[in-house]
Design brief:
The chain is of the alpha+beta class. 16% of the residues lie in helices and 44% in strands. The strands form three sheets. A six-stranded mixed beta sheet has the order 7-8-9-12-14-15.
Length: 228
């Protein structure tokens, strides 16, 4: 996925989940943050951040914060992008666990949930729920960075779908490259970790892939080991 117009800035502060203050071209600018997660480990004062210029000229904030450097590593923070990256990856045959799809659609309702993707192959029909991962510590990618009841609900619904004969995937898109492995962040959300382990035992496929990230682009990378 390509961002058509970007700017490089310096992070100052984040007074709430939705906005941040940055230093852009030697003046302070208020920008929208495209991620409502905590991101405290990476959005540190002085960090170099990447901004996307808004297409809507009437918007209150002219830019959105989409990525941040953590040392030399660039982490994409855009929570709207993982679904598109995974969709494109499946469509282009880059995700080996879901090959040769004949039908692929977004936002499919199943019972009381809305899964991110629905697919069909010659042999299977199933759902994919995508989670974007931006939290990394010492090379270990983790999710979630805050407790998520909605995330647990999706997992239990996916288990139910598998029990009814669908293929089910929980897909963690790690929005950076160079991690050692992925694991659920049990200390931050033990219920989510418990649900994910149960899902794996019940036949839900738990996948993690990293991303190829540059300042103006993100695309699907390579499979990453999932450790429980």
């Amino acid at each position: 996925m390509k961002y058509p117009s970007i700017k490089v800035a310096e992070f100052i502060s984040r007074p709430n989940r939705f906005i941040a203050h940055v230093l852009l071209d030697n003046h302070e600018e208020i920008v929208h943050v495209k991620n409502t997660g905590r991101c405290k480990e990476i959005l540190q004062e002085g960090a170099t951040v990447i901004l996307e210029e808004a297409k809507n000229k009437e918007r209150k904030t002219k830019y959105s914060l989409i990525a941040v450097y953590k040392g030399d590593a660039l982490i994409n923070l855009d929570s709207q992008i993982p679904n598109m990256v995974v969709y494109q990856g499946i469509k282009e045959g880059k995700i080996k666990e879901i090959p040769d799809v004949s039908k692929l659609s977004r936002e499919k309702v199943y019972n009381n949930s809305r899964f991110d993707l629905y697919f069909e192959t010659k042999e299977l029909r199933g759902f994919v729920e995508v989670k974007g991962v931006t939290l990394e510590t010492e090379g270990i990618a983790m999710f979630p960075d805050a407790p998520t009841q909605r995330g647990c609900k999706h997992i239990y619904e996916m288990i139910r779908a598998v029990e009814e004969g669908y293929a089910g995937f929980i897909f963690f898109l790690i929005q950076m490259t160079g991690v050692k492995y992925f694991t659920p962040f049990e200390l931050r959300d033990p219920e989510f970790a418990k649900a994910l382990r149960l899902a794996s035992e019940k036949g839900v496929k738990v996948l993690a892939y990293d991303s190829i990230v540059s300042e103006d682009e993100i695309s699907i990378g390579a499979p990453v080991e999932v450790c429980f």
